[in-house]
Every structure is written in C-alpha cells, then in structure tokens.
Amino acid sequence: MKYWIPLILAVIFEALAALSLKTSTNTENHLYTALYAILFIISLGMFYIASKGIPLSIGYAIWAGLGLSIVSIIGIFVFKEEISLMKIVFLLMIIIGVVGLKLVSK
C-alpha cells in the first residue's frame, strides 16, 4: 500500500497538469504553462517513488489509464467536449482494465 499512494498522487498531478495545459491554450496565460511544467514534474516524481514498489508495466498502465480517464471525464463536463455512448464504453473499459491490473498485482 505504501507505493500505491504516490501512484494515485502521480495520477492526480498528471491530470491537473493536462488540465492546466488545456487552460493555457484557451487563455494564452503563460502562468498555466508554468503550472503545467511544475505539476508534471511532481507527477513524474511521484511515479518514480511508486515505481520502486510497483512493477513498471502495472504502474505505468494505471498512471496513464486513470490519468486519461480523469482528463476525459473532466473534458466532457468542464470543457464541453463531445460525449458519445462509444466514448463512455471505452472509458469504462480502461477503468475496468486498471482495476483488473490492481487486483492481479501483488
């Protein structure tokens, strides 16, 4: 459990970084670009810590998959991105895969 907390933090910071990058492109405020860099560095640092106790194949899949899912869901609600049944189905498949990876890991 000790390494899962940094992994979850890495996912959260990665999603926040992606959102700040999107905000930067929408507003052209370079403070959001700097925030993106800071948040992504923190995310990579947390992932580094997590990778000491979680196999890379599982940790990276969870980091990327959950980050993608969170950003997609926020994109739908905050940035009014298109939503479709297939998009929901595939996001659910990613989340199910991430949960499955967690369940089979030691």
Mean pLDDT: 93
| Low-confidence runs of at least 5 consecutive residues | none
Structural class: mainly alpha
Q: What's the number of helices?
A: 4
Number of DSSP strands?
0
Major beta-sheet overview: none
Q: What is the beta-strand fraction? A: under 5%
Describe this structure in words.
The chain is mainly alpha-helical. It has one domain. Helices cover 82% and strands 0% of the residues. It is built from 4 helices and no strands. It has helices spanning 4-27, 30-50, 56-77, 85-104. It is flat, with a radius of gyration of 15 Å. The mean pLDDT is 93.
Descriptive labels:
single chain; 106 residues; mainly alpha; flat
Structure summary:
82% of the residues lie in helices and 0% in strands.
How are the elements arranged and paired?
Layout: H1 4-27, H2 30-50, H3 56-77, H4 85-104
Helix pairs in contact: 1-2, 1-3, 3-4
Protein name: Multidrug efflux SMR transporter
Keywords: Cell membrane, Membrane, Transmembrane, Transmembrane helix, Transport
GO molecular function: transmembrane transporter activity
